[in-house]
Amino acid sequence: MSHILIVHAHPEPQSLTSALKDLAVTTLEARGHEVQVSDLYAMRWKTLADRQDFTDTCDAERLRYIAESRHAYATDTQTMDIAAEQQKLLWADAVLFSFPLWWFGMPAILKGWVDRVFAFGFAYGVGEHGGERWGDRYGEGMLAGRRAMLMVPIGGRAPYYSERGVNGSLEEILWPIHHGTLFYPGLTVMPPFPVYSSDRLDEAGWQQVAADLEQRLAGLFSDAPIAYRRQNGGHYDGEQRLKPGLGEGEGGTRIHLVQPSDPEQRPARV
Ligand SMILES: Cc1cc2nc3c(=O)[nH]c(=O)nc-3n(C[C@H](O)[C@H](O)[C@H](O)COP(=O)(O)OP(=O)(O)OC[C@H]3O[C@@H](n4cnc5c(N)ncnc54)[C@H](O)[C@@H]3O)c2cc1C
């Protein structure tokens, strides 16, 4: 039995996105897992990152969000909503993010959840910084050992998001979330669960989507994650650049994927 947190961001409980979230809850519970849902619209989650996030400020004259975040996390003076979400993340063995693709990213309410919950000392600013070591991040950190997966309905058709598609590949579009937001604090990132042409989904399409999601959830802890290189796994030099000889034959962000041609051993899964 595992613990699974679903962070859900859709304003309509009868939406397709909400139906996927509901299906995930029933499927995972039927498999014996314990599930918690942070339904951000229902919680009326505070989206704006501002001074109100700190109950004891270290500089009343000028807000330096990072410095206040560091102080609040270290002194246990964060607001209760932020601390509660961090506890849920630490409780979880896997975290599912449920949201529709809006303007090539996540809805603002979910971005606001990340901005506020992923605090200094919790999601960044973790570990030793100095010399050639730039902290515990990209595969290491507070959230290491936990899996993450996006469940993301997308209005556009699948070809638009293919390698040569006009929108750019989905892999590239989700890179800031997958790598910059989830892998950064240590989460092991699973391939996403996209539902393309979501605005035109009919009953037959839903039946297929539901069956596919159940299959993905069955493999949540056994399917292969995206093979990002770990920052401290020997792939990068002291300036955090990929070492010569690695990433050959790839371009863009794909150079940060472990490749079969790499001279060194595939790093252990985190
Ligand atoms: C602000 C904004 C920005 C956007 N940006 C982008 C973008 O950058 N790229 C892009 O490709 N798209 C974009 N879109 C489109 C967006 O991704 C889709 O509207 C979204 O994925 C649809 O998901 P939903 O949960 O809102 O669907 P809903 O509107 O709730 O439902 C979609 C369809 O699914 C049907 N359906 C079938 N089965 C079920 C079921 N069991 N439960 C509920 N509904 C079901 C509904 O009848 C409906 O026809 C954007 C939309 C908005 C509003």
From TrEMBL:
<dbReference type="Pfam" id="PF02525">
    <property type="entry name" value="Flavodoxin_2"/>
</dbReference>
<keyword id="KW-0560">Oxidoreductase</keyword>
<dbReference type="GO" id="GO:0005829">
    <property type="term" value="C:cytosol"/>
</dbReference>
<dbReference type="GO" id="GO:0003955">
    <property type="term" value="F:NAD(P)H dehydrogenase (quinone) activity"/>
</dbReference>
<comment type="similarity">
    <text>Belongs to the NAD(P)H dehydrogenase (quinone) family.</text>
</comment>
<dbReference type="InterPro" id="IPR029039">
    <property type="entry name" value="Flavoprotein-like_sf"/>
</dbReference>
<protein>
    <submittedName>
        <fullName>NAD(P)H dehydrogenase (Quinone)</fullName>
    </submittedName>
</protein>
<feature type="region of interest" description="Disordered">
    <location>
        <begin position="232"/>
        <end position="270"/>
    </location>
</feature>
<dbReference type="InterPro" id="IPR051545">
    <property type="entry name" value="NAD(P)H_dehydrogenase_qn"/>
</dbReference>
<dbReference type="InterPro" id="IPR003680">
    <property type="entry name" value="Flavodoxin_fold"/>
</dbReference>
<feature type="domain" description="Flavodoxin-like fold">
    <location>
        <begin position="3"/>
        <end position="217"/>
    </location>
</feature>
